[in-house]
């Protein structure tokens, strides 16, 4: 081969080599771009998945926290209600003890005697009030039998017809119970006003 042909072949090889290098660079660039695109897609997809999982876990934690707070509030509310009930019961017990020490009031018996229209009655009063009750009843036109009131009555007076059909309960225990039933909300507000 002559020099010209050899030089042409060298130029052709160099041109092919140059084109191959350019093509390799293009392929590498395309591969790198494709790699980065796939990597970014995977990262974005994984990031979205993690964000969703994080949001879900955050919501679950918030729900759990609300449930626990609600349980605590309910528990404390129940304890407060128990303490309130105990305090009101203590107040009522103190009232009962104070009422037991009260002396008999003629007006209590008179208010019952004015309401009845029967002539034969049983009268229940505290042991210490029997003498006073006899004195009051002796001035009336009613036939009576005085009996000792059970200690639970706390004093006052209970009048009952002999046949047991009519009862007028003016005992202190009944008065206290009526007071509690009719004014429980007011008592609660007065004692536990916030």
TrEMBL record:
<comment type="similarity">
    <text>Belongs to the V-ATPase E subunit family.</text>
</comment>
<protein>
    <recommendedName>
        <fullName>V-type proton ATPase subunit E</fullName>
    </recommendedName>
</protein>
<keyword id="KW-0813">Transport</keyword>
<dbReference type="GO" id="GO:0033178">
    <property type="term" value="C:proton-transporting two-sector ATPase complex, catalytic domain"/>
</dbReference>
<keyword id="KW-0175">Coiled coil</keyword>
<dbReference type="InterPro" id="IPR002842">
    <property type="entry name" value="ATPase_V1_Esu"/>
</dbReference>
<feature type="coiled-coil region">
    <location>
        <begin position="52"/>
        <end position="86"/>
    </location>
</feature>
<dbReference type="Pfam" id="PF01991">
    <property type="entry name" value="vATP-synt_E"/>
</dbReference>
<dbReference type="InterPro" id="IPR038495">
    <property type="entry name" value="ATPase_E_C"/>
</dbReference>
<dbReference type="GO" id="GO:0046961">
    <property type="term" value="F:proton-transporting ATPase activity, rotational mechanism"/>
</dbReference>
<keyword id="KW-0406">Ion transport</keyword>
């Amino acid at each position: 081969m002559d020099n010209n042909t050899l030089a042409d072949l060298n130029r052709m090889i160099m041109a092919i080599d140059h084109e191959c290098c350019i093509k390799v660079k293009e392929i590498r660039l395309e591969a790198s771009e494709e790699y980065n695109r796939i990597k970014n897609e995977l990262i974005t997809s994984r990031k979205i998945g993690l964000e969703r999982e994080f949001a879900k876990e955050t919501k679950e934690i918030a729900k759990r926290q609300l449930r626990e707070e609600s349980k605590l509030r309910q528990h404390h509310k129940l304890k407060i209600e128990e303490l309130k009930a105990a305090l009101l019961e203590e107040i009522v017990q103190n009232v009962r003890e104070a009422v037991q020490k009260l002396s008999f009031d003629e007006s209590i018996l008179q208010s019952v005697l004015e309401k009845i229209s029967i002539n034969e009655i049983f009268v229940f009063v505290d042991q210490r009030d029997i003498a006073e009750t006899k004195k009051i009843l002796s001035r009336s036109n009613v036939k009576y039998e005085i009996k000792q009131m059970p200690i639970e009555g706390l004093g006052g007076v209970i009048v009952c017809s002999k046949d047991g059909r009519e009862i007028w309960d003016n005992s202190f225990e009944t008065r206290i119970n009526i007071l509690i039933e009719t004014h429980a909300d007011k008592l609660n507000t007065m004692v536990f006003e916030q």
